[in-house]
Amino acid sequence: GESVGLHLPTLSVQEGDNSIINCAYSNSASDYFIWYKQESGKGPQFIIDIRSNMDKRQGQRVTVLLNKTVKHLSLQIAATQPGDSAVYFCADGFQKLVFGTGTRLLVSP
Amino acid sequence: NAGVMQNPRHLVRRRGQEARLRCSPMKGHSHVYWYRQLPEEGLKFMVYLQKENIIDESGMPKERFSAEFPKEGPSILRIQQVVRGDSAAYFCASSKAEGDRGAFFGSGTQLSVL
Fold first, then answer.
1. Which tens digits make up the pLDDT trace of A55-94?
2. Fewer CB within 10 Å, N- or C-terminus of chain A?
3. Phi, psi dihedral angles at B79 (to 5 degrees)
């Protein structure tokens, strides 16, 4: 069945460091992925998406990498700031959004 | 720039009562998705609706849960005879079209069953 999972439940970084959050998926037919950020008590916020015909996409301070061979994607956050502290989810959007458990990013000053 | 609106923000019900959760999609969006989230867990898909149609309800419990998205008005997620296990955050997302899967989420409804 479909599943999207994250390797690390919690990632702690220092302010200014680069953060890398990983995600694995199992559905080889998946062709669309989204990263969401969820702050406490709020709904998920769209960060960036990528389609399977790409292996990299950049946004503002964020980059998503997609490796279809090993069914893995990652979210890279440059110069992490305290405001980046949140839970990050990857979602497989092939037919409906299938979410993983999430990675909690803790940024200390 | 109104986003996806959900109400109520918090809902408290006693066991056996009914819970109605409302979701107004973003302007111009005709596709609505409902998700449930337990503490420290990911979002679990429940149902995908278009105006007046249920497209995918594979994540909905077979009993007590129903959803609708009428031609006019918000989408409604209805839970009958609530039990404590229904306590969770329920999120709604909307998108413009089936091919546009960059869905945007509301702030959620926190359901607490006493």
1. 999 999 999 999 999 999 999 999 999 999 999 999 887 6
2. N
3. -120, 115
Model confidence pLDDT, tens digit, residues B43-73: 899 999 998 899 999 999 999 999 999 999 9
Block residue for tokens 């009562």:
B17
Tokens 């979602």 label which residue? A91
Asked whether the bond before A9 is cis by omega within 30 degrees of 0, the reply is no
Put simply, the answer to whether B56 touches A96 (Cβ < 8 Å) is: yes
Of residues A4, A93, A101, nearest to B101 (C-beta): A93
Residue B20: partners with Cβ closer than 8 Å, 6 or more residues away: B76, B77, B78, B79
Report the C-alpha gap between B68 and B57 in whole angstroms.
11
For residues A84, B88, A94, A50, the Cα torsion angle rounded to the nearest 10 degrees is -10
pLDDT at A7 over 50: no
Q: Distance between CA A56 and CA A75 in Å, rounded?
A: 10
- Say which of B40, B103, B106 has its CB closest to residue A97: B103
- List CB contacts (< 8 A) between A43 and chain B: 4, 6, 91, 105-108
SS3 (DSSP) at B26: coil
Contact between A95 and A72 (Cβ < 8 Å)? no
| DSSP reduced 3-state for B68 | strand
**Pair of tokens at residue A15:** 């302010």
Chain A residues with CB inside 8 Å of B44's CB?
Answer: 99
pLDDT per residue as tens digits for the range B15-46 = 999 999 999 999 888 899 999 998 878 889 99
